[in-house]
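Below is a filled-in request sheet from our internal design queue. Each sheet records the structural input a requester submitted and the sequence that came back. We keep these sheets so that new team members can see what a complete request looks like end to end.

REQUESTER: design group, bay 2
PRIORITY: normal
MODE: inverse folding
CHAIN LENGTH: 334
BACKBONE (tokenized):
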């Protein structure tokens, strides 16, 4: 059984870190090392992790000054000794067979496949599942699909060969440095998809913690981060217009919809203008807006003239739905 390095970045995660670690310690796959990177916590996260480490020698703690989730993950990858890296956010949970099924899939797929991934449940504060992601059951060369659909959808649902993670340079801190953090995982997964094949493990093995009251604000930050991510990818790889036009348009329109409904017309106008200023020089993004989206924006501006005509040639819709589902991730049968 190859060694798997579980890498957990943690910042003020005292409320959830013990539950998260327990979901790792209960894995059916036991050949693990568990690396918790404390990113400058001030709430006693380190103390809680060290108490668990005294009972299980597989747990290690790395302490660093607050540097953002990307650099925290990279510190864990650097310290890792495993053949595979399994990232896990400090408030997410795993099904007991999560690591086992991912390793089996990667071992069966061969060396050209560097990433195994699974769909996920959304879980609440109490760890109860209340919705689930779409199952994108795609394997092989998935870059174009990943570009628009985000097959993994979170930071805790993939296992990657350590050699591949190192080759792509780990997680980029660029978004954090621009104040556009949120899509570090998505960017890392896209970098991997450009060079390696993926394999899907079509079971819901991850509990991705979301608090319903915060979903609108989280979505605004995430979409804003996605725009910067696409701008970076266009600049780095010269992606053709057709590769990003639909995705950039949907993201911009989604942002407009969310802020209009959550902040009111005047505040929405100010926020949209901020995006315009931030993206003013990202012409390859602005040029990618589809005629369909610009037509929809025109109709929206006629309904809400306070948003401002200055936005008309810049911005873009649609937010996915959820459906109810209840249960605890550990007890869901495969």
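RETURNED SEQUENCE:
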């Amino acid at each position: 059984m190859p060694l798997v390095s579980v890498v957990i970045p943690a910042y003020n995660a005292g409320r959830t870190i013990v539950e998260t670690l327990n979901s790792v310690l209960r894995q059916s796959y036991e050949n693990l090392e568990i690396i918790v990177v404390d990113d400058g916590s001030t709430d006693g996260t380190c103390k809680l992790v060290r108490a668990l480490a005294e009972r299980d020698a597989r747990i290690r703690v790395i302490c660093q000054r607050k540097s953002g989730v990307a650099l925290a993950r990279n510190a864990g990858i650097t310290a890792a000794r495993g053949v595979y890296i399994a990232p896990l956010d400090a408030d997410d949970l795993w099904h007991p067979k999560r690591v086992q099924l991912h390793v089996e899939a990667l071992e069966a797929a061969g060396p050209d496949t560097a990433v195994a991934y699974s769909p996920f449940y959304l879980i609440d504060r109490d760890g109860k599942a209340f919705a689930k992601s779409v199952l994108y059951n795609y394997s092989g060369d998935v870059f174009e699909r990943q570009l628009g659909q985000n097959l993994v959808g979170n930071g805790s649902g993939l296992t990657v060969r350590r050699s591949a993670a190192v080759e792509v340079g780990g997680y980029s801190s660029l978004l954090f440095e621009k104040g556009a953090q949120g899509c570090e995982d998505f960017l890392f997964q896209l970098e991997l998809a450009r060079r390696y094949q993926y394999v899907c493990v079509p079971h819901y093995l991850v509990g991705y913690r979301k608090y319903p009251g915060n979903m609108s604000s989280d979505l605004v930050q995430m979409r804003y981060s996605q725009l910067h991510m696409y701008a970076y990818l266009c600049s780095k790889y010269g992606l053709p217009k057709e590769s990003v036009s639909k995705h950039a348009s949907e993201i911009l329109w989604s942002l407009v919809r969310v802020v209009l409904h959550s902040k009111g017309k005047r505040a929405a106008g100010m926020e949209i203008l901020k995006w315009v200023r931030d993206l003013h020089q990202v012409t390859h993004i602005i040029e990618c807006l589809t005629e369909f989206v610009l037509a929809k924006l025109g109709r929206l501006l006629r309904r809400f003239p306070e948003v401002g005509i200055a936005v008309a040639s810049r911005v873009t819709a649609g937010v996915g739905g959820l459906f109810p589902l209840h249960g605890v991730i550990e007890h869901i049968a495969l």
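SHEET NOTES:
- The chain has 13 helices and eleven strands.
- Confidence is low (pLDDT under 50) at residues 280-286, 288-292, 307-334.
FILED BY: M.R.
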